Amino acid sequence: MSLFQIDAGKEWRGGQRQSFLLAKELKKKGYPLYFVVQPQSPLYERAQKAGLSVIPIKMRSEVDILAVTRLAAAMKKKKCRLVHFHDAHSVSVGSPASSLAGVPIKIISRRVDFPLKDNFLSRQKYIKNIDCIIAVSKGVRKVLIEGGVPPKSIKVIPDGIDYSPFEEANSSDYLRQELSFKKEDFLVGIVAHLADHKGHKYLIRAARILKEKAPKIKFIIVGEGPLKMELTRQVSESHVGDIVFFLGFRDDIPRILCSLDLFVLSSYLEGLGSSLLDAMACRLPIVATKAGGIPEVVVHRETGLLVPTRNSRALATAILTLYEDRELARQLGDNGFEHVHGNFSAEAMAGKIIDQYDKLARKKGIKLNEY
């Protein structure tokens, strides 16, 4: 018998990192695991390097008959007894495949607080024949219930973090040397997909407000996405090109974070915000919005400052507050470090999910950790 983890992500983002951490913990605990991922994707490369049992299947679209057929065949051959879908695309491909293969336990992770699409088919894939939906925050749970998902089928399990990369990256001069910043420059960073719901445009407007008040504040934007050209144009038109810097996709996030003085997340929709956990692991003070599950991570005036969504002036005010009050910033960073270490380890996340697996398996008389 075996467990299947399916992640159809083509990029390396927060969701892929969480499925990867879970797969590694399952392997460590001796579960017979197969990890289904997009061929040649960053997740595929990392999973291969980690020695996970990988099944590369190209999942082109949500209606991909070839992918469904190949996945169903693999599930039958490997005697799959539990499948965990890690994104909406994998649900669309994996749900019919698992039905064809007769997989008895089906689990979905929901990581975003977008409302469910207002159509019957979309809602059914989160309700029909699904044993459990793992929501990364209470905010996501609320949206699922509003979308018609029965509350009893939802389990809230927050993201986890592997602390070791952040413990190894301890140089505060990394970015300053790369971009020739001065010692007195105050570096504010965001690591997020360049998509509308991440609210970069409000952060750029905040940069415009702060340029005259505190010209030593510099903004570092890390990530790629569909809004890259639009945001670049906004920076140019706002005349903040001398204080806003786009770094694109980077695989040295721990070293970048350790170079910052402040981390910001400007989303107006957010499941949890796993980048916040990374920032806290680097003792960074946080400025973030009151969106989705963010208040479940950032406690206002304890681990960071929370501001309303879509409010550039509030973002600017909070950033300026921590720029001017370095002692408060230090306290928030220290508190955040303790908070993330006490509540958001990868081991704890995986342990809670495995407990849920075993609970569902016992109900159906199945043992999951036997080959």
Structure description:
The structure is a single chain. The protein is of the alpha/beta class and 371 residues long. It folds into two domains: 2-160 and 345-363, 3-Layer(aba) Sandwich (Rossmann fold), CATH 3.40.50.2000; 164-343, 3-Layer(aba) Sandwich (Rossmann fold), CATH 3.40.50.2000. 43% of the residues lie in helices and 17% in strands. It has a seven-stranded parallel sheet with strand order 3-2-1-4-5-6-7, sandwiched between helices. α10 (228-237) links the parallel β9 and β10 (244-248). The radius of gyration is 21 Å and the shape is elongated.
Descriptive tags:
371 residues, alpha/beta, Rossmann fold, 2 domains, seven-stranded parallel sheet, six-stranded parallel sheet, 15 helices, elongated
How do the helices and strands line up, and which of them pair or pack?
Layout: E1 2-7, H1 14-28, E2 33-37, H2 42-49, E3 54-56, H3 65-77, E4 80-85, H4 88-101, E5 105-110, H5 120-124, E6 132-135, H6 138-146, E7 154-156, H7 164-168, H8 174-179, E8 186-191, H9 200-213, E9 217-222, H10 228-237, E10 244-248, H11 253-257, E11 262-265, H12 274-281, E12 286-289, E13 304-307, H13 312-324, H14 326-343, H15 346-363
Parallel strand pairs: 1-2, 1-4, 2-3, 4-5, 5-6, 6-7, 8-9, 8-11, 9-10, 11-12, 12-13
